[in-house]
Amino acid sequence: MPLIHATPATLPGAEHSSDAAICIHDLTVAYDGRPVLWDIDLDFPTGSVCGIVGPNGAGKSTLLKAILGQVATTSGRVLVHGASFDTQRRMVAYVPQRESVDWEFPVRAVDVVAMGAYPRIGWFRGVSRAVIDEARAVLDRVGMADLAMRQIGRLSGGQQQRVFLARALMQRAQVYLLDEPLASVDASTEQVILGVLAELKREGRTIIAVHHDLATASQNFDWCVLLNMRVIAAGATAHTLTEENVARTYGGRLTILSEAAEALRQAASRGVA
Amino acid sequence: MPVRPFIPEIDGWIIAVGALAGAACAIPGAWLLVRGRVMAGDAVTHAVLPGIAGAFLAFQSRDPLLMLAGAAVSGVACLLLAVVLERTLRVDRGAALGVAFTAFFAIGLVMIVQGADRVDLDPSCVLYGALELTPIDVVTISVPGLDSFTVPRAVPILLVALVVCGLVSWILFKELRLSAFDPGFAAAIGARPLVVDLLLAALVAMVSVAAFESVGSILVVALLAALPAGARMLTSRLGPMLLLGPALAVVASIVGHLAAIAVPPLASDALGDTSSAGSIAVVAGLLFLACALIGPERGIVLRVLRERRLRERIAREELLALLWRSQERGLPVQRVAVREHFQQMAVGRRVMMAAINALARSGLVDARDEQRILLTTEGSREASRVIRSHRLWESYLTEQASLRPDHVHATASRLEHVTGDALAAQLASETNATIDPHGHQIPQDEARG
User: Fold this and answer.
1) Do B373 and B366 meet the contact criterion of CB atoms below 8 Å apart?
2) Do B182 and A101 touch (CB under 8 A)?
3) Check whether domain B305-448 has CATH 1.10.10.10, yes or no
4) Domains of chain A (ranges plus CATH)?
5) Is the Cβ–Cβ distance between B21 and B160 less than 8 Å?
6) What is the pLDDT of residues B128-144, one digit of tens each?
7) Contact status of B180 with chain A (Cβ, < 8 Å)
8) Minimum mean pLDDT among A69-73, B112-116, B247-251, B354-358: which range?
């Protein structure tokens, strides 16, 4: 956590490239005094399919939540197409992890998809026929036209994941944040999801996905971040996913940082820090 | 022992008040249920007590607005205390809530008992309610241009609470649903799930204030939980669920109160010594059980029926397959062999006979002979579909899942009963086998020739 910024004349973030969809500058996030993300500087280039790759507990989901303003940050700032997330909220679509909700909830697939249009509808107003029709069309796009009226608990895991993707498509956003979209889905769902992501890229939109599987990362993403509490490497996939970088991300080199983090947590819990 | 007769101008009002209280509780209760937070609602209903007692003691009045204000203050204070305990002392969420709301409830009780000399507030009334007394405590409402009405004081209060809950649920339906289903996504799109949560807590506080005088704060919890849970068993749509809860409340109030006056007092013979509120809560619980039995999707009765129907269909298909295999070997099937086969499968005699009779009725087998059962032409076609999917599965499992041929029969026997035409076609295209791993011919799909 640097206390002094390099040049007081330039605003933090101003030195970042202007064509970045998401600019993260000097971001630090701590839970209970224990840093989980440390001095993150990242520019996700507009129009690319970006993967966030790293081991369990590396802070991948936390990074997405920090972009979405859902975790308290110790320091740093996030810019979405040049402005803060609060003002650019409508430009960002979000696909949470499938396990984050109760799928027994009494709601139909089409109703969940329509939730993506809520910001456009505004408070107090009902969901119109037109929105429902649009939601059906989006479900068709992910290959689920005939399952629109089904209660979500009666869908398979892959179908549930597609419902979440369809909801994000309803948001008509520029930047798509996806948390483990390909985790434990069937092969046909994986094809559908990758197909949709390719379409979004063709339309010039930006995709940022947390990804668990190092083996498939190079096929699915053209830009990658290797993350383990801090950014190990970031850039075009071919240059980033090198053997050495992967070893640094998944290997034991970071234990000293983890130890420091643990020491900070202990200090915080004893009230020393 | 005397059983009290039904007095319309008293019992009618008691039933109306009970139904209104239940209906008002059922609506926020439904939101809490789908949110998985029924216990937080429980906490709020208890935590409002010191606020109610405080308003009483301070102003010596039973003005519902004063009580609501007091309840809101103590309800929110309790939730905040729970959050502080959870966050700063890292107490488990359930424990934090449990400590906070019981402490608040106890403080409220102490205040009422200590202040009992000064104000007309009875601790037992707070706990159990005084539903039987509501017809005595009346107010007169005059409508301009019309007559003035004298109604129990609880009626307009509960009516307002019910209308507010209904209106909020209607106008903010999509916001409440979104925050309940996926608070993370709601926060990401700026739908302010915390504000919606607080609103829900306020609704719960309001219905507990409105209902506590008549049904008591303990029984509010029963209505808050049992009625929506029963409604959930009947439907998997949120809208109908919000309407079914209040409908169940009406049933619970009518049945509960009638039961209370019809059942002779056990210990005393004093007239009117009944607990309608308790009886209504018991009926609400029984209604939940009834819904759990008969519900269309999750109901136990239908589930048992569905399972039975599946067992019977499997038995029919097994019989067809058995006959077909014998025919393949050129052997007629003796009834004895059928019985042995089903005994091995642990299928009872009743199910077996039902399968034979059903197949005979639909002309798939000929069971007129005392000794033997024969497959008709139509039955043979039906049987070949079962055999086909069995043998396709055996081929698929050996080829694609690398299982040994002697390991696949049992699995295939289970899968053959759940394999539709589309899945069978997909299997066929993926295996290309015409002979199964045991050297038997796989029958062709006759529909395609």
Assistant:
1) yes
2) yes
3) yes
4) 20-265 (3.40.50.300)
5) no
6) 778 888 888 888 887 77
7) yes
8) B112-116
